[in-house]
Each structure stands twice: as C-alpha cells, then as structure tokens.
TrEMBL record:
<dbReference type="GO" id="GO:0004065">
    <property type="term" value="F:arylsulfatase activity"/>
</dbReference>
<dbReference type="InterPro" id="IPR000917">
    <property type="entry name" value="Sulfatase_N"/>
</dbReference>
<dbReference type="InterPro" id="IPR017850">
    <property type="entry name" value="Alkaline_phosphatase_core_sf"/>
</dbReference>
<dbReference type="InterPro" id="IPR035874">
    <property type="entry name" value="IDS"/>
</dbReference>
<keyword id="KW-0378">Hydrolase</keyword>
<dbReference type="GO" id="GO:0046872">
    <property type="term" value="F:metal ion binding"/>
</dbReference>
<keyword id="KW-0106">Calcium</keyword>
<feature type="signal peptide">
    <location>
        <begin position="1"/>
        <end position="26"/>
    </location>
</feature>
<feature type="domain" description="Sulfatase N-terminal">
    <location>
        <begin position="30"/>
        <end position="405"/>
    </location>
</feature>
<dbReference type="Pfam" id="PF00884">
    <property type="entry name" value="Sulfatase"/>
</dbReference>
<dbReference type="GO" id="GO:0004423">
    <property type="term" value="F:iduronate-2-sulfatase activity"/>
</dbReference>
<dbReference type="GO" id="GO:0005737">
    <property type="term" value="C:cytoplasm"/>
</dbReference>
<protein>
    <submittedName>
        <fullName>Arylsulfatase</fullName>
        <ecNumber>3.1.6.1</ecNumber>
    </submittedName>
</protein>
<comment type="similarity">
    <text>Belongs to the sulfatase family.</text>
</comment>
<keyword id="KW-0732">Signal</keyword>
<keyword id="KW-0479">Metal-binding</keyword>
Amino acid sequence: MLKSCCLSPGLYAAMLLIAISGSSFAADRPNILFIAVDDLRPELGCYGHEAITPNLDRLAASGMRFDRAYCNQAVCGASRISLMTGLYPESTGLRSFHVNGWRKKLAGVTTLNAHLREHGYLTLGLGKIYHGASGHDAVDGDNWDRWFDVKQRTHWVAPENIAIQDRNAKAHQETGKGPKRGPVTESIDVADDAYVDGRRADLAVGLINQLGGRPESSAKTPLEENMLDEQKPFFLAVGFTKPHLPFVAPQKYWDLYQREDFHMPPNSEIPPGYPRGAANLNPGEITYYGGIPAGKAPTAWPDPLNKRLLHGYHACVSYTDAHIGRLLDALESNGLADDTIVILWGDHGWKLGDHSSWCKHTNFEVDTRVPLIMRTPGMESSHGTHTSSLVELIDLYPTLCELVDVPLPSHLQGESFAKTLGDPSVEARSSAYSSYPARVDKVSTIGHSIRTADHRYTQWWEKNDAGSVAAAVATNLSEDAGETTALSDDDPLLAELAEQLRSRVMAARESSAPITD
Ligand SMILES: [Ca+2]
C-alpha cells in the first residue's frame, strides 16, 4: 500500500506508476474516467444530504470526498472552459454560459484532453464536457481521438410536453413574451434511455467494455478496433446534463421521494450590503420554462411549485447517480477499476430556494461550492476519507498531470492537490477564488470572491477600473453557513481578507498562455 504524505509529488507519481502493472511506459499510466455532472450541488447522500445516491456514495467510500471544492465561475460555459484550459476566467475573458467561438479565441491554449493525448492517452469524449455537447469547435473537436455525438431533439419525452415546447417556442419567437421552452418538470414512466443522459450512459458502458477487452458484453462496439491496437491508457470524459433544468427523469426516480418531505431552506435572506443585482434574485434561466408564474419573483411562487422543483431536482440527481453506477460497474466487471483514476465533478453549485432564489450565477457559497470525488489507484490508505482542504476546479488539470506523470504545461494557473489525495490533512490552498460579473447600482462589475477556512469575502470591482470597489461583503461560514449575515464594516479581519483577495485577482490575470484574440 502506498502512502504519499512524506513523498515529493514527483516521487509519488513515479511510485504510483510502478504500483500499476504494465510493461510499456505509456501503458503503465492509469486510465482516467472523467465524469462531469451539470448543475450538481453537493446535495448527495455521501455529503450528508437527503438525495438518494447509492452509487456516488460508494464512489466516495472507495475514494476521497472533497468538502471544500469550488468552481472558478458559477455558470456552465465559463466554469468548464476554465477547468479544461487551466486558466481563470480573468485570463480567458470567457464569462458567459455560452462560450461560442472559444476555440478561436484561445487558439494557442493546450486543453486537458489535448495535453493527455499528446502524452500517449487515447482520448474519448461524449456529453457535456465543454458547454456544447456537439459542434466541432464547441467540444474542442481537433483534440480528441474520438468525440461522440449523442443526439436529442428536445429535453421532453411525453408527446404533450413536446407539443408545449413547440408551442411555447413559436409564441415566444412571435411575441418575445412568455416561456420559450417546455414544462419545467416531467415525470413519466419510461426507461432510462428515453432521455439523452441514459443513452450517453449506454454508450459509455459500451466504450468501457470495449476498452476492457470484453466487447461481447455489450451490443455496441463504438470504437474502431485499430484504436485499441496500441493499448494506450484511456482518458474517457463523460458529461451528464441532469440535474440541469428542466427537471425531467423517469418516474421511478421521482418515486424514490415523497414530495411532502421537501421544504424550502431556512436561508431566505441575503447578507446586509450584498448588492441585490449580484444575488440573482429573479433568476431568468428558470423562467424560460413553462409552469413558472409570469413576472413573479420566486418569493411569490406557490409552495406546491417549490416542492415540485425540489422533488424534480432530487429525482434528476438520483437518475444521474444510476448512470454513474453503471460506469463504475463496467470498470469493475472489466477488471479496470484498480487501474483507473475516477473523477466526479460538478461545474458549479445551485440554489434550491436558498436566498429566495434558484439557479446559479452568483458568488454565494451555495453557487460556487461543487461536489468533487476522486478515486486514485495506489492511494488506498486515503480511500474512504474526506478532506476539508480548499481546492478549485482549475486545480484538476495540474493534479491529473502530476498523478499520471506528464509534464505540466507552463500556462496552467491552478495548483496540484495530489498530496491531499494521499493525505486528507494536507491543505492544498489557503483560499479558493471565484468570480462573477454583476450589475451593482447600474455599474458593470466583476464580483471577486475568496473562500478561506472560515469566511467568504467578495468585492465587486468596477469593470473598467481595477481600483474602484463598488461593494464588499464578508460572511462567516463557520457561524452562518447559509450566508444571511455579514461581518461589520469595522471588523479588523476585513483588511486582511481584502489583501488576500487582491493578490488572488492579480495572480488570476497573470496568464502566460499564448492566447490569441
Ligand atoms: Ca452547469
């Protein structure tokens, strides 16, 4: 059994490679199963919540759970580009949910999948890894050995709901008013593969069976045989779209829960001084869908709707958990589990009624905190543990490089937390940094935020003047986990937090990547 806590990271990586059987150097490297889940907050059984997630729980029990992992911007596109490029949004300049044209803007940047491919990995991807699940540039199409498109026409399966989707879309196009999408929820008795995530799981299982040399165990053999000839280690990236809106999942996952058991959270307020424009109190994203009261703030939504949304989110989480269970089973049945690093990450958190709102798009703790679970072969001494070390999603790229002993590209702005994987008491960072654009008193700002061991501190900087702070708020998460109060303006801690924040922002801007624009 390997212990890493007293080893240098490089020596650890070398020993990890020795621990994993094989002959050639590239083949000695562990495989990587890289699972992204969209809009998944750490609302999981293994994190102590009511969500029914037996498969994520068993992954956590056989790996390491990160209790303080944070995204770098709480929206899909920006977060994912940051993770996959190893660059902060301050450097990429990509800060929206849609990041169309990102590949041209970041033409010189080596992505995680490109880098692993250059160093001997067979790179395979499907689903939502980047913001788009299809489209050559959207998915970084030049830099995978194979990218698989799994088609879907709509999010809904029930014919009446597809009709509502089509009707709403047409009416919205003609009038610019009303919802432009179908119902916000759907619960019907269909098989898992009725929705696109189920079909993605089917494909991923077929890939794992083929990679494991047991293609006969699956009806599908998606890979050309010549891709397997070199016996490269694989980097398989699988992105699931649920529990992202709309909350659609087979009935059996809804039936795991009783709707009356769900209640709105107690943290209905925002901290004093928190700019209302930065709190996303009227979340536009959810109003795209049918069934949301027109023109009413979430504080006025009826409780039956709130309960249905809470129920639907959890049903989608359990549906996704089932897919992940199938991937873990496939690793095990193919004898790959002991040679494969498994990473489960969410792209940002989500408000389930917290602060009287829904969705993401803020610097609040609930929007920036993400689930992160990793199982690393050769680190069995820390399996089944959890860590309170602060880590950021941008750290995954350098961490993986270190774990599989490939060079770190010079442009990376994150820091490896490989040592923490060997010993959960190792603190990887003193703060986690994230940012989010916001309008504050009609001024465009970027909200810069750090999470320290106890506090979250956010300053909103006017976009065109780095020295001008439009607002600032500090919360003590150890005493006020729901962030409804704030430190007083004369608290002596504020100056120290402000200095830490400034240094993090400046570092996030110091990119050495050959970005073109
Ligand atoms: Ca997302």
